[in-house]
Design brief:
about 220 residues, mainly alpha, two-stranded antiparallel ribbon, 2 strands
Length: about 220
């Protein structure tokens, strides 16, 4: 693909197939882990994992991210489209992961059930609804950045990057809010929804504002 070529719906379909397939694989791995560590069903506090298994799991999580980075890198020669491809892959993968768990083991019972989301650098945790909201957002934005031609997608300035990075960091702080408690083998009871929504809705608002501003300038 040349630097000026525009990805087609077929290429987006290929990314979708990859994300769906790997989302199911991720779900299957978690099913196996829960069968071993939580035979009576997943719950907090977390079952202590041996140092060797914990290292393997953390490296696996990092490998998952690098796999998607590699696929996104191969999907386009343009940095913004590579970023869009990565965001799209991550979003679809995460959504399919939860669908796979629901279809295979009937979990979660509700979208407000708590889940452990990530282990690096400290545990991330939150109700299932929170990562799913993020996943839908980055799927939509990533797909647009990847597929739309330059004239139809919002231009991204340095300020835009800083605003969206700040919004993302706020969301990450919300996810890691209960990390210290989990490390002390405690059970999270409160998710900082206000903090989460400030980051989540703030990021959405800025993206929509910039898109509309660009559309208005073109008209």
């Amino acid at each position: 693909m040349s630097a000026t070529s525009i990805p087609t719906r077929r290429s987006l379909l290929a990314l979708t197939v990859l994300a769906i397939s790997f989302g199911y694989i991720e779900g299957a791995i978690v099913v196996y882990l829960r069968e071993i560590l939580y035979p009576d069903g997943f719950s907090f506090p977390l079952v202590p994992i041996s140092g060797r298994l914990l290292r393997i799991e953390m490296v696996r999580e990092a490998a998952t991210i690098f796999l998607m980075i590699g696929a996104a890198w191969a999907a386009s020669n343009e940095p913004i489209r590579r970023f869009g491809a990565f965001a799209f892959l991550f979003g679809v993968w995460d959504i399919v992961y939860y669908i796979a768990l629901k279809l295979t083991i009937g979990w979660p019972d509700t979208i407000l059930d708590w889940d452990i989301l990530f282990l690096l650098p400290i545990p991330w945790a939150g109700p299932v609804l929170s990562p799913v909201l993020v996943a839908f957002a980055i799927t939509a934005v990533g797909g647009a950045l990847y597929l739309l031609p330059e004239g139809k997608r919002p231009s991204i300035s340095r300020l835009d990057w800083w605003v969206e990075i700040a919004a993302g960091l706020i969301v990450l702080v919300a996810f890691m809010w209960n990390g210290p408690m989990i490390l002390r083998e405690g059970s999270p009871t409160h998710f900082p929804w206000t903090l989460f929504l400030i980051g989540y809705l703030g990021g959405w608002a800025w993206f929509i504002y910039r898109w509309l501003a660009r559309s208005g300038s073109r008209s």
